[in-house]
Structures are given as structure tokens and as C-alpha cells.
Design a protein that fits this description.
Number of helices: 13
Distance between the termini: 51 Å
Helix content: 25-40%
């Protein structure tokens, strides 16, 4: 099978490419740049080609190029305009097209949300989710139903670590290693469904290789929900340091650092429990998923390999310090 990856430079794109290469498929990846050390070992594979180009700058003359592939996976369609441009490139495409979207498109009208691909999509506040949903509609209306799959990703982690808020890079780890508390956005236990990027990639490829078994819209999640308190405890265990938690309200977070607060206010403060046919179809894969500790250890090992990977963003570190002044003890 010949596969084209659009925007394959991220964590999930890396794992999709790696798994396809290992299964001897011919893989082409269009990326703006190759700047992540962990990606470089793929470049030597005979059945892998990186095309350094901004996919959104491709001309309509590229249509014939797209027609050479059996599968196209698009990680970088973020809005309606981009989807319209993509439709022109796919005008004569006869293979399977997968748009990677987000579960953030689902309505969050209550604290606890039981979500499936049939759930209501009415996120009226978060621009990112609104734009993704508009792009989905372009593809669902413009591509034959036996060719299109929308894969809505839940919360994944890898070199971007699962944190209550913040950038999720080494800055967060250094904050904890320096003896500081993990700052939480809810006093009680709020639950999220977490997947390592490897396991998200495995689900996407199952949808791609067995499209007849899945609906046109598929949630790339698992059935397990984990509390942020448990996520924090696994962090401390993996780092081998004492547990320490503090609470800061979403309101205070929005006042001090609005950028971080947006994902909390629209997404992370809600409980998410997933159901649906695809969950049952993923059950065989789920049995071999990395658990949270294994996935987190794998991700932290990436940073542990070289000190040069452990970059501390001083601005974000200072924001943690500022927020800590307004936080209160969390009884766990």
C-alpha cells in the first residue's frame, strides 16, 4: 500500500509512519521541516520518503500526485478554507482519506460527559473546535462515504506530556524536580481518557486498513478514564520524588494566565467517558496498550536520553511560580 501523510512531523504522525514502515508499506510524508531528534532514524528507511514542503502551499497541479496513493492521512487540516483547498487536490482521488480531528468538537454542557461518535457537536466557544468541525463537514459532504473517515482524537501524550495545564514539555518536569507541587484545576477527581501517541496511531491505522468496520466518524480513544490525581501520582512515581499537589481555581488561572486557561475552561475541567461501537472494535488493541506508567516512562526516557532535549521555557516556569502563590493545598 502507498500512503501519503500530510503533516507527519508530530508525535502521532511519527508513530503512524513508523508502524507503516515496519509493515513494509511505501510511506511519503509531507512536512515543513525535520527538526525533532527522535524522528531522524526513520529517514534511512528505503520505503520512507520525506517531502519538505508546506502542504497548504501545494498547487492544484498536485492532484495527479495524490492519485498515486491508496491512503491519505491528513494531520494538518484545521479549518474550512484548508478543507476546501484539500478537496481540490482530492478531486480525482479514489483511495481512503482520513482527516484527523478532535473530540473537543463535542458539546460540554455538564461536568460529566458520556461521549460517542453520535454525541451532540455544539462547542460554541472554542474557535479551534469550531474550525475543525467546519472542516469535517466539508469532507463528509464532498467525499464519497466509502472513502472518508474522520478520526476524532482524544487526549494523547508523548513528548508532549499529560499535564493539567501548561505546555507539557520538560519545563513542567523541571518544576516538579525542583521540589514544587503539581497544580491542579479541580479539588475533586476529574477524569480523562488518555492514550499514548503510539496507541492512537494503532487505532488510526486499524480504521485505515479495515474501513468497512467503522463509521465515517470514529473516536480515537479507549474505554479507560483516569483521574488527574492519578495522572499526577504516576508522574511522581516515575520521577521518584514525593507527591505534592496544590489547587488553583479556573477563574484565578484565567485571570493570571489566560492562554493556559482556555484548554482547561473548554476541555480539561470536564469528565470524559467514552462509549460506542468503535470502543468495542478497539478492545483487542486496548488489551496491548501501554498503561499510563509505561507510556509516561517511555516519554520521559526520550528526555532522559540527552540533556539537550531538556529545554526549560523560563517564561512558562515563571508562570507556574506566579500561579503557585495563589494555590491552596489539595487534600488527596
Amino acid at each position: 500500500m502507498r500512503v501519503l501523510i500530510l503533516g507527519g512531523g508530530g508525535n502521532i504522525g511519527f508513530w503512524v509512519e513508523k508502524l507503516l514502515i515496519e509493515n513494509l508499506h511505501d510511506v511519503y510524508s509531507i512536512q515543513r521541516s525535520v527538526n525533532k531528534p527522535k524522528r531522524k532514524h526513520l529517514e534511512s528507511q528505503k520505503n520512507f520518503v520525506i517531502i519538505l514542503e508546506n502542504v497548504n502551499n501545494l498547487s492544484e497541479m498536485s492532484c495527479n500526485f495524490f492519485n498515486d496513493f491508496d491512503l491519505v492521512i491528513d494531520f494538518v487540516c484545521f479549518n474550512e478554507m484548508t478543507a476546501i483547498k484539500r478537496m481540490r487536490l482530492l478531486s480525482n482521488f479514489s483511495g481512503i482519506f482520513i482527516m484527523v480531528s478532535t473530540v473537543a468538537v463535542y458539546d460540554r454542557s455538564t461536568i460529566t460527559n458520556f461521549l460517542s461518535s453520535a454525541s451532540k457537536c455544539e462547542n460554541l466557544y472554542w474557535e479551534y473546535a469550531r474550525n475543525k468541525f467546519k472542516a469535517e463537514k466539508i469532507f463528509l459532504e464532498g467525499i464519497s462515504s466509502n472513502q472518508i473517515k474522520i478520526c476524532r482524537l482524544g487526549h494523547t501524550f508523548d513528548t508532549i506530556l499529560p499535564v493539567p495545564f501548561g505546555t507539557g514539555d520538560w519545563t513542567f518536569v523541571q518544576w516538579l524536580l525542583d521540589g514544587n507541587s503539581m497544580l491542579m484545576h479541580r479539588r475533586d477527581e476529574s477524569f480523562w481518557s488518555l492514550l499514548h501517541s503510539r496507541d492512537a496511531a494503532r487505532r488510526i491505522l486499524l480504521v485505515a486498513t479495515e474501513p468497512q468496520d467503522f463509521a465515517n466518524v470514529v473516536n480515537i480513544v479507549n474505554s479507560q478514564s483516569t483521574s488527574w490525581l492519578e495522572i499526577g501520582r504516576v508522574f511522581f512515581s516515575s520521577l521518584r520524588i514525593p507527591e505534592s499537589f496544590r489547587f488553583i481555581s479556573v477563574e484565578t488561572l484565567r485571570e493570571i494566565y489566560p492562554y493556559w486557561s482556555e484548554s482547561v475552561f473548554f476541555h480539561k475541567q470536564f469528565d470524559e467517558v467514552y462509549d460506542g461501537d468503535e470502543i468495542r472494535k478497539f478492545s483487542q488493541i486496548e488489551a496491548t496498550d501501554w498503561n499510563l506508567l509505561d507510556g509516561l516512562n517511555f516519554s520521559l526516557d526520550f528526555y532522559r536520553q540527552k540533556k539537550t532535549f531538556r529545554i526549560v521555557n523560563q517564561f512558562d516556569y515563571d508562570q507556574f511560580s506566579l500561579l503557585a502563590k495563589y494555590s491552596k493545598p489539595l487534600k488527596a
